[in-house]
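Predict the 3D structure for this chain.
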Amino acid sequence: MKQNRVVVTIALSLAALYFSIAAQAQNPTAVQRLQLSAFGGLSAVYTGLDLGKNGSLTLGADLALPPFRFVRPTAEVRATYPVHDGQVASEKSVLAGLRVDVLLGRRFHPYVDFLFGRGEMDYSGNGYVYTNFVYDVTTTNVYSPGVGLDYDLSEHFAVKVDGQLQQWSSEPTASGKIESKVGTLGVVYRFNFNRGPIR
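Done. Predicted structure below.
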């Protein structure tokens, strides 16, 4: 609970600081003030538990806020669901958080993000045995910092390469935590409601 309050406090403080700065800045005319996009892709998930891995589908949406200088904050939500169960465990999660895009030219859009949400670890076969207990399913908070790159193919479409380092708590390990790695290759679609150039 205490960690949740700290994360929320930091996020609100950063948002307040950003909007106070953005209110005094002039936005570039070539960039829409708000930009909605959706993405989907295939993910390779390395669970961090006994070298387990599974294939998953990741879907999400981004709402890009007004840019400031060479950065643009974005609110993001994403969900990952296994389509190929792992031999040890399969992870599914729903996450949301803040992403910051670095505005470099017209096509390359690198970013960093920090997402938080809930995840479920489903153990394969007859469950996972640890310290005389058998675990079938565990549900926990997930913290997920990451980096990525969107490369524009056209005004509406882009290719996405994304990596996340996720921390799962309340898991059957000595530390009670698991660090999983998620790599995603996908496609982005940007909506344009202004009948003008997106960027």
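The chain has a mean pLDDT of 82.
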